[in-house]
Amino acid sequence: MKRRVFQLDTLAGAIALALCSVAFAGQVPGSEAAPDVPVSHRDRVYAAEQFSNTVSVTDPSDNRLLGVIRLGDPSPGNFSPLYRGQVLVHGMGFSPDHKTLAVVSIGSNSVTFIDTATNAVKHVTYVGRSPHEAFFTPDGKEVWVTVRGENYVAVLDGTTFEEKTRITTPAGPGMQIFSPDGKYGYVCSSFNPETDVVSVADHQIVGKVKQDSPFCPNIAATPDGRQVWLTLKDVGRTQVFEAKPPFRLLKTLETGPITNHVNIVRNANGMFAYVTVGGLNEVKVFRTDNYAQVATIPVGSLPHGLWPSGDGSRVYVGLENGDALAAIDTTTNKVIAQVPIGQAPQAVAYVPDAVPDGDGMQNLQPLGLAGNTAHIQMIPAGVAVGASTKSPTSVALFDQGLLQVLQASVTGLNPKQPYVLGLADNPDGNGAIEALANFMTNPAGSAIVNAIGQIREVVSVNDPQTTGVRRYLVIAPQVDGKAGPVVQVQAL
User: Fold this and answer.
1) What is 372-490's CATH topology?
2) pLDDT digits over 215-227, tens only?
């Protein structure tokens, strides 16, 4: 990371600054020796937004959305055979010099490279089926892209962004991150219970770590080069292993349903792992020395990606079903701001000194349609509204024009069982149920469920655009291929 350069009038001033300037290496993947970069108007927070196909750009100094970089169109515009934009904007990484953002779009199999100073797209590289995440090696010479729909990591040249080779892995590589010294790349899997450790110098697999489940969406390395943390979304756990040979498993933590992303913060209080737990709408904070949980932070609906500021003083969290960024003060572990952004934010990246000169407003567009979302809560059937402070299921309706994409973050159900999300004529769920989506819960009794249609027209409360007969969202188990007794209903 680049240190700010200050002009000092006197030697005494220089000595005073040196005594006060303590480097905590607050931001990964920087090393422990890298100096902090205080929050300023030159920094940017980016979020990859899956259903609006945008990248939001936020100034963290005043927590203000500056605009979005529009990489594609919402549905059904992106269904055309002549469509050339990006679909399902999802993953994100940035270069060591903080000048380039790499944005992965799952549906269009692409990595879009964006100039952070001008917000201009400078290159698009197409890779294999359903890539998930991309990140630069610490020396900036390569970009590794996990091609989750296949069985390899695509290695791109860090300057031309063209694919130069592939690293074969078990099917479904989920994400990669690197040791601070650039020696190892750690590649967890979303389809197989195995994390591979790869030598960056020769792209050979030099170690394997057993995952407790096949579904790892995210991985982070500590700046001291000692630990690697990974999340397991399907079983609600977070695991820690040694970052150096023999890559021994150190700890397994029960973190909660829909455990999403993990990131590392180092500040004056020590070093901590921040974990987003979507099913609980919380961020959990753990010490990295003894793994003790030190905080639970309510943040909003379905927290997903997160990334710390350049000095470790803040962590920014994308709320997938809240369409917002939550800013957390890491000294108090309190939410200090919420910034409205695009639809269903996934990965988040905080880039210090992204805009060294100027206002950085070039090529940005207003939020527009991407800011239109309705939010619904679901509660257990038979439970009075207000009787419980926590809703097991949150639902977002992302406006796509005439249509809405529905996404439900479902929790509180029996594990590994078939259910149906549907529409009922009555608020208690009695009567016939029209299915919107059939789904199977994971081992933690959770699921992310999607559907598309003119759903807002019948389920939204006090919506001036609502017309026709009112209907109600319900969840019921599938019994002999049909909906059984309703277990969750729409909160009114």
Assistant:
1) Immunoglobulin-like (2.60.40)
2) 999 999 999 999 9
